[in-house]
Design goal:
The chain is mainly alpha-helical. It is 57% helix and 2% strand. Strands 1-2 form a two-stranded antiparallel sheet. It starts with a helix and ends in a 9-residue tail after the last helix.
């Protein structure tokens, strides 16, 4: 689960960088100076990865040039361009940073657990004694896995909000409704895929509640407070599966946006590689067609994402 979460984090950051390019995002949102002023380890790390991913982009905007473009005097007036992007694009390090930190803590807890002695009783050969205790109790892993699950749910929500941003012309004010490249109203564009992303995210939100608090006494009340760790892990596995589906749909959305904007050659190297990989398994959507056999190929692509340490 930790490795799969590393893959999810890597893809979420790549998708975030990709999205930031396609809205001509400002470079100060990921600047080193900005994030050093709030030096949470995960936030700083995610911002650095974003900077590395976007180093070769021709689409980001420079804040200084923007400020020089609009001379501000003492008269209040409306600037005809967006000064700040929505949170799901501007606040990627601040949202994914805590998940990054949670993953590091969970990995430490899992490593300790894997190397621990959890028998009961434990035989102390040196002292010739039996130690009756509860090292088998699963709360450490149950609590850790529930925290990880909550983080993955938030990651899924972040991706779903960006999908909605790109498909909702009333919000983005730039792209065609539902990224429809033919005739809105006569063809669906990516509406069907958005329904899947929305419902899958909603299921993840329902599964987000920490399962370790659902203790029920059993075993003649000998086991009167239990971890529910196994069920917590099973629910987390489902949340991970769902998250990959939503991130895969976001990949399709971003690729479709590239086709609308015709900016493939201006993308950063990593984003262009993602675009090419998506288009190799799912051609651009113009006419309505059944995607049930194509989306799993994008899902396999999403699941093949290299962990964080290998993406920069």
């Amino acid at each position: 689960m930790c490795r799969e979460t590393e893959q999810l984090m890597a893809l979420a950051i790549k998708n975030g960088a990709f999205a930031l390019e396609l809205v001509h995002g400002f470079n100060d949102a990921i600047s080193e100076k900005l994030h050093d002023l709030r030096p949470h380890a995960g936030q700083v790390a995610v911002a650095k990865i974003l900077r590395d991913l976007l180093r070769s982009s021709k689409l980001l905007r420079d804040r200084q040039q923007f400020q020089e473009k609009f001379e501000v005097n003492h008269t209040a007036y409306q600037i005809p361009e967006e000064v700040q992007q929505v949170y799901s694009i501007r606040c990627i390090p601040q949202v994914l940073g805590p998940i990054f930190d949670t993953l590091q803590r969970v990995k430490k807890d899992v490593e300790i657990e894997m190397n621990a002695v959890t028998d009961n009783p434990i035989i102390d050969v040196e002292q010739g004694a039996f130690l009756h205790g509860g090292n088998f109790h699963g709360d450490y892993i149950a609590v850790a896995i529930d925290q990880l699950k909550a983080g993955i749910v938030k990651l899924t929500m972040l991706s779903e909000r960006r999908i909605n941003f790109f498909l909702n012309d009333k919000i983005n004010k730039t792209f065609p409704p539902f990224m429809n490249l033919k005739k809105p109203g006569l063809t669906l564009g990516l509406q069907g895929l958005q329904f899947v992303a929305t419902s899958t995210t909603a299921q993840n939100q329902t599964l987000a509640f920490p399962h370790n608090v659902h203790s029920i006494s059993t075993n003649g009340d000998n086991q009167d407070i239990v971890s529910m760790g196994t069920d917590a892990a099973l629910m987390t596995a489902k949340v991970i599966e769902n998250a990959f589906v939503v991130l895969a749909i976001e990949l399709v959305t971003l690729a479709q946006t590239v086709d609308f904007m015709k900016v493939e050659n201006d993308l950063a190297t990593h984003s262009r590689s993602l675009y090419t990989a998506v288009r190799e398994v799912l051609p651009v959507i113009i006419e309505d067609r059944v995607l049930a056999s194509e989306l799993p190929r994008v899902l396999r692509l999403a699941r093949s994402t290299a962990p964080l340490r290998a993406i920069t």
